[in-house]
Design goal:
two-stranded antiparallel ribbon, 2 domains, elongated, alpha+beta, single chain, Flavocytochrome B2, Chain A, domain 1
Length: 105
């Protein structure tokens, strides 16, 4: 499941409450602590909560009590997606300019 697909399962309006943790997608829909996809005002379903739950008081066993309904697809990180494409193009242009100046001297 992609992050976009996961976002549709936010627990609101009758949608299931799915949460991704460490690449696994758990169904928290039946939990009374996740009503309307909200966990006590601290966490919202439909998202990857891996980083947020690192500081939560939960132990792994609590999360793993819920059914796993899928795996979160990893998004490939490309230089362009991190802004690296622009940096590369600027450095490439500088290198070409230096080469041209060196030929003219």
């Amino acid at each position: 499941m992609t992050k976009e697909e996961l976002a549709k399962h936010d627990g609101r309006g009758g949608n299931k409450a799915y949460v991704a943790v460490n690449g696994h997608i758990y169904d928290f829909s039946d939990s009374k602590l996740w009503q309307e996809g909200d966990h006590q005002g601290a966490h919202q379903a439909g998202r990857d909560l891996t980083e947020e739950l690192k500081s939560a008081p939960h132990v792994r066993a609590v999360i793993e009590r819920f059914p796993v309904v899928g795996k979160l697809e990893e998004t490939a990180v490309t230089p362009e997606s991190k802004g690296g494409g622009k940096i590369f193009m600027i450095l490439f242009a500088i290198a070409i300019l230096i080469a041209i100046i060196a030929m003219l001297i």
